[in-house]
Amino acid sequence: MEHLEPVKEFFQQISDHPIFRKTPEDEEAIVDQSITLCRDYINFKLAQGGLIHKRGTGPELDNFSEVSAHIIVTGFQLEQFHPSVYKDVCRKLHLNLSSDAVISDAVHEVANELFRGGINWPRIISLFVFTGALASECVASYHPDYVHTVTTSFRDVVERRLATWVLQRGGWVDVVTTVDGFRYNHSLRVQSIISAAVGFLVALLLTGTT
Fold it and tell me: Which CATH number fits domain 2-11+27-207: 1.20.1440.230, 3.40.50.1010, 1.10.437.10, 3.10.450.750?
């Protein structure tokens, strides 16, 4: 369909980037990599929903970098555990998808709530899941041009709030080890961290931003 051409062009390149295999030199590198990670997550999300490819014909996890694949797997698990949180986000946030500013404000507002109590990987992954849900609803509502705004807004959040923390952890690759812990460690501590991350979104989406 013609209205999907912009988003298809946006996702022509998927990641298998050697930049994730070495320690980033500075925060600028963290920010640059975040664009690829966000685009990969949204690309996979849209493909799984049949929004840019026929179901079953989209990119496989093996097509992505290890970092992107881990974020995708954990994000989809988080969404499966809490499906009501990441569904109908535009309605819950009273978004009318009328402008780039509306989309950008929504991403920043959610980020403000998520990271108000601190930064950790579950909260960061929760932001990936939110951006994927928002981008999907933009495409489904015939506004694929807003997908780029979702991605750039995510990048801005990383630049302003997350880059220093991620760099101190050794870069985005740190999520690979951490995500393995969340997938296979069922301790109360891990469960409480994930629940806290989701809790921020629950509170925000129940009250809306307006």
Answer: 1.10.437.10
